[in-house]
Specification:
heterodimer; A: 236 residues; mainly alpha; Arp2/3 complex 21 kDa subunit ARPC3; two-stranded antiparallel ribbon; two-stranded antiparallel sheet; 4 strands; globular; B: 251 residues; 2 domains; 11 helices; transmembrane (chain B); cell membrane (chain B); ABC/ECF_trnsptr_transmembrane (chain B)
Chain lengths: 236, 251
């Protein structure tokens, strides 16, 4: 497997900023774990594993942004739709941890920053949008598809801007020709394109799953009435 | 899912996974917090990494090829001396930024050493053992559980993708280069569902055989690290700390 580097490597961010983001990520993940435990039942456990595997596979696709900076699909929105925000954030974090340990992709000391960008910011932004859009849009496959698409685009751009913020706080080198505004603009531009690609994949996947196995889509829980089984059979 | 594991029989391969993870993470932290002006400390680390790789019989060529993952960051490192702000110095006949030169060196040295340390860990530890190690380091069970399934299902996903491709070809489709994308895009949802349903059957079969969230290797305490093994693995971060300490005091 010839992967190309995707995540922040060791030494790109300085020590204090890496440490602060490490603490933020640890605290947030501890909260996700306590909430996620309640969600993880016999149906969600294999789903969480598959979502993580799927995200792992799509993160292999990546595109150059600046010298040394490349963007790739994140999968936070799809995770939030299929397994909910808490387990979703954990799935993306697991992908990042395994990539750091097993494939040397992303520095171990930058793990906190990577988890914050992709697992926390990406999933949180996506889930807020999903919660809002699913209430506003019609409850049809099209509505769900649009939700998945919009949430993916916005979440990917938000995650890329979170990296720009980290670089502004603790980048180890000041750049002369690239102002922060220019970096932010370049990152946002590329990530809108990436977001569109990711949005299409997420929308197609989630709509297919929702059509055949709606019980598997976390975001649709509570919006659907469970089927009532009576002595006469299944009532609509 | 084989990962990057190299099947050998060396003292490094025989060490329990939890001590290797702990040693790798602490050594990486020491490398990263080393001030970037302490140039020769990084030479010391390189010798240390080479020694560890030699004990694990990890070939240098393999390490070099695999460390290409950090190529984009190497490009950044070589671009920084020309892009960064601050006073200029002449280096190899080129006028470059001093801050950028240090910054580039910083990313190059720390990034490379970090990648090499991770690669040595991945080369000497199977993915299954890595998860057992994380479990023994008190990593929350929900994380190790998701990680276990992720590594299992990567193979399921790949297998389903291969079967669906063969099914498409046998129905007269002729997938080539970019035209494959259309078939892939229409099939991605189905791929996900098929992989899930297979994965669900595997999971239910595991539950029926007594699986309750941890792999047997984790809760059967056989093979857990002894004190001597912890001490043996600790030599790597301790040596790194000694190099860092002397570099800071002398530098």
């Amino acid at each position: 497997m010839e992967a190309v580097a995707l995540h922040i490597s060791n030494g790109v961010l300085n020590g204090p900023v890496s440490a602060i983001y490490g603490v933020i990520a640890l605290v947030a993940l501890a909260y996700c774990i306590s909430r996620g435990r309640r969600d993880l039942d016999d149906r969600l456990a294999p789903m969480a594993g598959l979502v993580a595997a799927f995200i792992f596979a799509v993160q292999m696709l990546n595109f150059p942004v600046l010298p040394g900076v490349s963007g790739h699909l994140l999968g936070g929105a799809m995770a939030a739709l299929l397994v909910g925000p808490w387990v979703g954030a954990l799935c993306v974090s697991v992908v990042l941890i395994v990539q750091a340990l097993v494939f040397a992709d992303g520095g171990v000391t930058a793990l906190g920053a990577n988890v914050t960008n992709m697992a926390l910011v990406g999933t949180a932004v996506a889930y807020l949008l999903i919660a809002l859009l699913l209430r506003v849009l019609p409850r049809t496959p099209t509505g769900l598809g649009i939700t998945a698409f919009v949430a993916s685009v916005v979440a990917v751009v938000a995650a890329s801007q979170s990296f720009v913020l980290q670089y502004a706080l603790g980048g180890t080198t000041d750049l002369e020709h690239y102002s922060l505004g220019a970096i932010a603009g370049t990152m946002a531009g590329t990530h809108i394109l990436i977001g569109i690609g990711e949005g299409l994949i997420a929308a197609v996947t989630v709509v297919t799953v929702a059509r055949t196995r709606p019980d598997l889509v976390y975001a649709l829980r509570g919006l659907r009435q469970p089927q009532q089984v009576t002595a006469e059979g299944v009532a609509a | 899912m084989k990962g990057l594991y190299l099947d050998r029989d060396t003292p490094l391969h025989r060490l329990p996974p939890e001590v290797k993870i702990a040693a790798m993470v602490s050594a990486t932290v020491i490398v990263v917090v080393t001030p970037r002006e302490a140039l020769w400390a990084f030479a010391g680390y390189a010798v240390l990494v080479a020694a560890v790789a030699a004990i694990g019989r990890v070939p240098a060529g393999w390490l070099a090829r695999r460390s290409l993952v950090e190529l984009p960051f190497v490009l950044l490192a070589f671009a920084l001396p020309f892009l960064a702000a601050g006073d200029k110095v002449t280096f190899l006949g080129l006028e470059v930024s001093r801050d950028g030169l240090y910054g580039g060196f910083n990313i190059l040295a720390k990034g490379t050493l970090g990648v090499l340390l991770s690669l040595i860990l991945a080369a000497t530890t199977t993915t299954r053992d890595l998860i057992v190690g994380l479990d023994r380091l008190r990593c929350p069970q929900i994380i190790t559980q998701i990680a276990t399934f992720m590594l299992r299902y990567l193979a399921v996903l790949g297998g389903e993708a291969r079967r669906m491709r063969i099914a498409r070809i046998s129905r007269g489709d002729d997938p080539r280069f970019l035209w494959q994308l259309r078939g892939f895009a229409t099939g991605v949802g189905a791929l996900f569902l098929r992989a899930f349903e297979r994965g669900e059957r595997v999971y239910l079969a595991m539950v029926a055989r007594g699986y309750a969230g941890r792999m047997p290797a984790a809760w059967l305490a056989t093979g857990a690290a002894t004190r001597n093994q912890w001490l043996a693995a600790a030599t790597v971060p301790v040596a790194a700390a000694a190099i860092a300490g002397t570099a800071v005091i002398l530098g």
